[in-house]
Each structure stands twice: as C-alpha cells, then as structure tokens.
## 1
Amino acid sequence: MGTIQRRRGAGFAMDSKMGTRRDLEGAGRRKPAFAGVRERTQCRFCRRGIKYVDYKDVETLQKLLTNRGKIYSRKRSGNCAGCQRKAKKAIKRARYMALLPFTT
C-alpha cells in the first residue's frame, strides 16, 4: 500500500498509490444479512380480486381518504401502484359526481 493522506474534516482517507477512497469509521463492519424471505402482502383490491374500482362504492373509497378529504398515500393505504391509480381515478370521479367531498 502507499502512503495514506488524511483530509481535514473529511472522514475518509485517500490511498495515494491506488487513488481509491476507503471509509475510516466503518472499516470492516457490515450489516448482517437478512435472515428470511418475507411474504408479500397484497393490497385490499388485489386480495379480493377486484379488477375495477367502482366510483359508486363510497364506503370503500372513504377508507382511502383522510377526514379532510385528501387521498392517503400508497404507503399509508397499503395499495399497490396499479390499484392506487384506479382508486385515485374512482375518487376523482366520485368527487365530480358529488358522492365524495373535495374538502371538508
């Protein structure tokens, strides 16, 4: 190995011969590998086998809205990407038909 140059306040060392950077704090430490494989959870629509999210089904659509009328995110609602898009379209249709409020 070549000589190691230390930059002030940088938190890493440069190996002058190799020209590579190596971390000084976490040298040799690794995160433990994930032990098992998690089973994929399905969204509420995929679980029931629903292909079309109906805008007239207000009870289901209200579960995807906050009390202020905002649409919950995918992470919060648990929907997959495709079903979230279908639900968004259904909510907007229901709002236009005055079945759901825009805001409260």
Note: The chain has a mean pLDDT of 82.
## 2
Amino acid sequence: MKVNQDSQSAGTPQKLDTRIRQEQIAQAALKLVGRDALKGLSIAGIAREIGLVPSAIYRHFPNKDAVIDAVLDLIRDRLLGNVRQVRRETDDPLEQLERLLMRHIALIRENAGIPRIVFSEDVYADQSERRQRVYQMVQAYLDRVGEIVAQGQERGQMRTDTAPRFLAVMFLGLVQPAAILYHMSDGDFDVQTQVEQSWKVFRRAVAVPMNPRQAGAEREQNSSLEGSGN
C-alpha cells in the first residue's frame, strides 16, 4: 500500500492535488483567524486543524506570511466567484445585484476570519505590496459590479445620470459598515437585517421608476407573497 507522505498516519487525509491542498490550508488558516484572531494563526495550528504534520504545510508555503497571502487569494476567488454565480443564475441586473449582496453577507457570516484579516492593520504592517494586492482585489470586485450596473442602465432598469463605477462603490457601501459592526460585536450585530433593509433603499435610489401598471403588478405580487407566508 502506498504511504501518504502528507499524513501522520494511515488514518489522516489522503494526499491531495497541490492546488486543492493549498486551498485547504488557506481555508483552515481563515477558520483559525476567525476563531483566534490573527495572533492565533500558526503553521502548527493550521497543521492540527487539517490533521497534518507542520512539515506538510511547509511543502506548500515557506512561512506564515505566504499562508496569509493565500488566504487573501482565497477571499478574492470567493468574491469574484459569487459574481460569476449570480450572473449564471439570472439575467436580470437588479436581481443579480441583490443576490450578490446576499452572497457577500453570507460569505462574511460563514467566515468570521474575513473581516479580521481584511480590516487588520497587522496584515499590512511593512507590507505595501500586500496592501496593493488587497486594493486590486477590491477594484476587481468593483469592476464586476460596475459591469452589472452598466447592463442594467443599458436595459433601462437603472438610472443613467450616475456612472456605473460610482453606483458600484455605493453598492459595496451596503456591506462594509455592516461588516465592520458585525466584526466589532463578535457577530452580535444583525448584519442580515441591516443589509436587507439597506438593499431596499439602494434599489429605490438606483432603479428607474416603474409606470403605474408595473408598480401595481409588483404590489400585487408582494401582497401575494406575504399572504402565502402566513
């Protein structure tokens, strides 16, 4: 029987593809940061979380800094992956934005380590390249959101007197303050309700007003949905 070099014993996880293992390590690191903050992150702790020996982690990452960079890449991939997913789910730009917002909040709620890393000055201390990296990650996310907004404007669903980029930043603003409060309260702040209510305000601000017939149909649909929920 082939011996798994990454494992401590035959009962530990099997050897994985390098990319999958690195993502597993990054996810374990993110989980540890969510539980113990950045100061609680260590190579030994990551190894214990996955069920490996520390030397197995060093085969993929030379040090803790490299793991943190991998965590930031993981966050970027999840954010941009959410954009791709909502665009596959629906063709309606406003619906895409709403779904993206809810996915963004779910990502934060399910990964307490995200705000702890993104908002930590310790992550960026003497790391100007890393700060630039995170900035580029946010810019890439805003670019994708701006594309959705532009499509909504082209279809006459969203107001055209404001550039897509500005509306994209406003959209991100629905998340960031709520995420900070959620982080500072150790999860006690009701981020879900806050974002749901903020979305309603944002949609009213950016959507092209419906004609009376459309408005009546939407009210009818909302009443029907509320009635079915009782």
Note: The chain has twelve helices and no strands.
## 3
Amino acid sequence: MPTTSQFPDQPSSAGGGATLACAILAHNVAAHIADCVRSCAFAGQVVVFDTESDDGTVELAQAAGAKVVPAPFINFSQARNYALAHLDTTWVLFVDADERVTPELAQEVRSAIASGQAEGWWVPRYNHIVGHVLRGGGWYPDRQLRLLRRDKAHYDPAREVHEIAIIEGREANLNEHLIHYNYDTWAQFHAKQRRYTAFEAKTLRGEGVQAHPRHLITRPLQAFWRRFVTWQGYRDGLFGLRLCLVMAWYELLKYGWLLRGRGGGTQGERDAEMQGKK
C-alpha cells in the first residue's frame, strides 16, 4: 500500500495537458496542501479553490505549483459546482486536501480519459483513521465519484454533505486508490461526525422525516449491524468494533436531535454547526 513518501513529483506535461485539471477545495489545510498538490502534478492544471485560509495554505499551494482561486463556501455541493464553472479543461479530478493521488492512480486516470468509456469514474480510497488503514465498516472501498467530464457533471446544490456528482452519461469504476488521511486524532473524528450528524438531522427534517422514540433504539442497532456485519467492520478487529459503536452513537444522536426538533429544540444542531465554523 503506497505511503506519502511514494508520491514523486511528476512533470505537468504527463497526461493530457490541459485536458485534465485536479481541483482541490481548501480551507486552512497547511498540514496537507503541499503534498496533495505534488501528488496531482501529473495533471495539466492543479487548481486550489481556497476559502479564506489564514494559516499559510495559499502560499504553500502556490509554492508546490498550484494555481489558487479564491472561492466562496456555502456547502460542499455548491463549492464543487463553483470549481466546475471556473475550470476550462475537459476533465476534472476532484481531490480533497487530505488525499493523495498515487502514481498508479495517475496512470489509470490517463488511461480512463483516453478510453472514452464513461463520463464519470468512481475511485476507491484507502482511509487512514487514527493510525489505522481500514478494510471494512463502510470505510472501504469507499468509492467516490471524482473523475468527471466537466460538461457532463454537476452537483445538487441542496445537498450539504456527502455530495455526489450527477452525471449525464455513463459511469464506471477505477481500480487504483486515493490515499485518504482523514483523521489523525479522535478529537478530529468526533468534531467532524458531530457536524455531519447535525447536517443529516437538518436534511431529514427538511424532507419531512418524523422521528419516534423507538428510533432511539432501532436506528443505532441497525447502524451498528450494517457497519460491523454487513460492511465487514469486524475485519478491523477491536478498532473496527470501536468505530462501529461510535457511529451507532451518532445515529442515536441524530434521531435524538430530530425528536427535539419536532418539539422545537435544535440547539444540538446549532452547536455542532458553530463548531464547524471555528
């Protein structure tokens, strides 16, 4: 499995020139941005869409060879649509700042573009969570629809998290992986899960979903079974068991917030959303 040290600089002439851009959404990701940009150097363009970073992200990205475009942020779907609208290449590979493109994936991306077999390509990821590379529980293969023919793709702007591209045309799977360094600490993990849970509760409420007291038992149990058994979280041993239990807890939290919201109480969601803005 590739590690960070295995991402050599590659000349930008490799691949389809201006046929492909790697697009990176960024906000205060100084710890990751340089390595991320360098791993994307095979593309004709590497463009960082930055939202008011003040930790040196912009300077580090430029030093690594990226073009930086100031970008507003409302939600992830709208941010990706903004990137699509401000690029001029035929293809876009979206890469998060905490991800790395391996040389093997870079080669497969070039081959996929040349093949003309699809307008959207799903990319699997190796997820690194608190020092563990996961093999199950919904964190593997964790395919993401990231390689897009720009004029055939857009995102639903109402979908605030876990955005998925809408493709006008065919979709297919790549075999090589993105490396995703998503959580270094449990504190990072819990902060992001609280934000996701708040967004999901708000989305369900907006769709008119009604929560019932029984959901405080049934939904967490279903979430645990799905992750630990159906999605083979047991393959990750005790660490996998812990993760699946934690995710079941957040399912409980989500339906607890829904119940409170039905009675007018949404303070938990507001607290979590404010955490995400700090």
Note: Residues 237-262 form the longest helix (26 residues).
